[in-house]
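User: Teach me something about this protein's shape.
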Amino acid sequence: SDQRNRKIVVFTTSSSPSIPSTNNNNLSESEVLNQAKKIELFRENSLAKNKRKQPTEREKNLTTAINDKFR
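Assistant: First, the predicted structure itself:
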């Protein structure tokens, strides 16, 4: 097995306070995997938050008005 010291650089998103941004080249493989899992979870949460909310009453009315105009 290869016992050489592997250098891995991890870039993280700075928009999350829970994920420390690092350019430390001496992270172990498990630390890198943990970091990657955290980033993945953060991305999933962000996507869930950004899912389109239900249209408001005003938006519905505007859409109806526009559709009627071009009918």
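Now, about its shape. Residues 1-71 form one domain. The longest helix spans residues 29-50. If you'd like, I can walk through any region in more detail.
User: That's plenty for now, thanks!
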